[in-house]
Amino acid sequence: MDKNLPKTYAPKEFEDRIYQTWEDSGAFHADVNSEKTPYTIVMPPPNITGQLHMGHALDHTIQDVLTRWKRMAGFDALWLPGTDHASIATEVRVADKLRVEEGITKEELGREEFLKRAWAWKETYGGKITEQCRKLGDSCDWKRERFTMDEGCNRAVTEFFVQLYEKGMIYKGNRIINWCPSCGTSLSDAEVEHDDKKGKYYYIRYPGSDGGPGLVVATSRPETMFGDVAVAVNPDDARYRDLIGKTVILPLIDREIPVIADPYPDMEKGTGAVKITPAHDPNDFEVGCRHDLPSPSCIEEDATMNDLAGKYSGLDRYACRKAWIADLDAAGFLEKIEEMVIPIGECYRCHDVVEPMLSEQWFVHMDELAKPAIAAVEKGEVRFVPARFEKIYLHWLEEIRDWCISRQLWWGHRIPAYYCQDCGEMTVARKQPDVCPACRSSQIVQDEDVLDTWFSSALWTFSTLGWPERTEDLARYHPTDVLVTGYDIIFFWVVRMVFSAYAMMDEEPFRYVYVHGLVRDGDGRKMSKSLGNGVDPLEIIDQYGADALRFMLSTGISPGNDLRFTMDRLESCRNFANKLWNASRFVIMNLNEGGDSTLYAPGAPLPDELTLADRWILDRIRQAVIEATANMEKFELALAGQKVYELIWNEYCDWYIELVKTRLYGDDEADKERVRRILVRGLREMLSLLHPFMPFITEEIWSHLPGSDMLLIRAAWPKAEALPADPAATRQMELAMDIIRSIRNIRAEAEAQPSQKLRVLLVAETAVLNNIRLCETHIRDLGNVVDIHYLNDKTEVPEAVMTGVVDQVEIFVPLDDLIDFKAEAVRLEKESGRLSGEINRLGIKLANTAFTSKAPAAVVQAERDKLDKYQEMLDKVAERLLLVRQKLENETRSDI
RNA sequence: GGGCGCAUAGCUCAGCUGGGAGAGCACUUGCCUUACAAGCAAGGGGUCAUAGGUUCAAGUCCUAUUGCGCCCACCA
């Protein structure tokens, strides 16, 4: 038999050891040959850019709670871990490191050498991340750990690309894309963040070629004028009708451009005349296409002006803007400047202002791919929790435009397109061709670009299970059951996983998407590096233990909503762990060391004889099992956790342990053994219910219970049927508890010492009294009462008493010298007021025939019962109040 | 321009299908009672943002308003 627990709860002493035990035991490993039903979650792969933050801790805690719960509930639970190469983010980090540590740029280092550095980075940080997962207690299957750039994922990415290309869903085209000058790459629409910024509209005159006044255009980006090829006006716009077909002159540039009619200009906006710059604006590009206009670029990839900008060539776009406007103004072409709020697109990684640019890139056609992804949610094959995210998802997919997937980066999956250097033929293939299929030349080079990092994570649910091979894992574990992720990456990732799975697997990637919010700091601000308000989960674990952190993260949430991280809440969770620790210590230290440990083993039969308190706590646990399980099924983890918290603290610790102490310290050996068995049984059920939330402490305590022949992680989730239902015991126990509370209240109000033993008189009908007699020892023990008198009427009740009323029972506590009748009167008045209020409310309700005729009979009856009960109580309180008042009057008189 | 969320005790937040307002922290009072002061016991504190509506019954459903926050949107 194990020794008792150490005196203080010190999670650091056992968390790492427990984790090692789990991992060594193989409990995390899902068995492809298992008879059990599979349950699968794939971990959203953390970026290898750094270390885990509080958002990961939240994300992982939810997944681990679900995984551990399902594992206990009899499923073959697979939580598949992995990491993401995070193309652009990692490349920026590695380049920064190069600059800082070696003072060189990635270009100076060269592609091949740079990739070596990136792989070294991956080894370091990838390893750190998996270590952190272990600290959190993640019960994931490390034998199946994956990386988005491992061999299998690479194969999957190539296969995906080639198949889409062959179906005509991937194409290379010259289009307007989002360009991040500072990252030096194109971005997808999802990677651009829009923000309203203060800006200016510049009203600039384009004089007519015929010497006429021409027209005025408004622009927020005057530096793009060098790329202007036309001015468009709405054909219905009377102001410009005469100018259509004529030309105007670009001021100072002295280039003639036509005025064209196009439905695009909105007559209400600006001046109604729009400068057309096809190379730097997607709308203008379309207008340009419609009118067969050229599309000259004037801004380079590094956001400097090119030769088209004449004397401004080489200037940064904003420097150019400033000089150009000054020159226009000096020459009299600047009509006015208007302050405006302008939506600006920024790179989601570096927040540089994105420049729309004409560029040749690879794109995925979205129209066809989006259809099954939309249908999936509409038909309910994929469901969001909470459901409101379905609308957001659908809206985004319905408006989706083609996905730009090529990136001008090195770290990532290189596009499997090959070019013949002799004839220029392009081949898209799974392997580099030896010779050009067109001209047989062997001078073949691969496309320089890599793929959007989300292109590989889109395949995550099936690439990690072996696709494109038809593996047993893939057959068994796909589609996965739940995807757990933050609402901030629904567009980046969730949407793309859904359409990718339908395209390649012809099925949904997961059945549920559990969406959680962001972790914010105590002031509600988003945790971020730049604000420096981030809290490191590892430091928290070090100080408070992983269980406290996990409990805070899993019970402080409601699906889809953000969560504030406060030390107060963390401490209260740690205190809860401490409470459980001490209660368990109490139980273990009271066990019979020489006893038969099979009586304490999981699943051991309950004793034949059960006391009222035993039946009560078993019924309460049973109820908690039912409710917590129902909550878990509905993804209401926080409610489930809260129920278990209340069961452990408010019922098991506060009442049951206190109720059984006298039995435990008594001489009846058989009864002592019965109590111990119930204590252990109850504790085991509670440890099981709590284990998904607080795995470490529950496993540690479990291991100290005699008869624990297997790890808690493998134990069965509690079943309500295994526990006796006993609502009658619960009702009776609750009456006893109310009486005890009432006595304690009287004691406190009278300012009697807690140690002072009280005498109590209980007045009620005989039947009620007989019921109470069954709880007499409890009332004595917990009310600290020496003597209980049962009476049918009040004739023998002395005058100097304080009173309480619980249901049909009147409680009198004689406290001769301690009674302050004034205070007693105030107390009774308060009680009387409360009861009168209730009676009044119920009376009105029951007098209303609309209520009595339309409300369900059970509801009406319940209200009647309540009214009777309160009326009875009020009568007693009023009677007593009258007596106390008389007493006060007498005192006043005698004072006179 | 479109959409969404939040508004409940001093603070942070629960409250799932409508049927007597909850938790944690903070506060007051009394307790180092042999599991636990990271604790025990007893308390105080809320016209559930505002205005309408549906209903026998609304914190809960509907509409509008106000305030805060978020997302989407091709920067004339």
Please specify the SSE layout and strand pairing.
Layout: H1 15-25, E1 38-42, H2 54-72, E2 76-80, E3 82-83, H3 87-102, H4 106-109, H5 111-136, E4 146-147, H6 151-166, E5 170-180, E6 185-187, E7 192-206, E8 215-219, E9 230-233, E10 247-250, E11 255-261, E12 273-276, H7 282-290, H8 317-330, E13 334-347, E14 355-364, H9 367-379, E15 383-385, H10 388-398, E16 403-404, E17 406-407, E18 417-420, E19 426-428, E20 444-446, E21 450-451, H11 453-457, H12 460-463, H13 472-477, E22 480-486, H14 490-504, E23 510-516, E24 519-520, H15 537-544, H16 546-555, E25 563-564, H17 567-589, H18 612-633, H19 637-664, H20 669-690, H21 695-704, H22 727-749, E26 758-763, H23 766-773, H24 776-783, E27 785-791, E28 801-806, E29 809-814, H25 821-847, H26 849-854, H27 857-895
Parallel strand pairs: 1-2, 3-4, 9-11, 15-23, 22-23, 24-25, 26-27
Antiparallel strand pairs: 5-6, 5-14, 7-8, 7-13, 9-12, 10-11, 14-16, 17-21, 18-19, 18-20, 26-29, 28-29
Helix pairs in contact: 2-16, 3-5, 9-10, 9-14, 15-16, 16-17, 17-19, 18-19, 18-20, 18-22, 19-20, 20-21, 22-24, 25-27
The protein binds one RNA strand of 76 nucleotides through strand 7, strand 8, strand 12, helix 7 and strand 13.
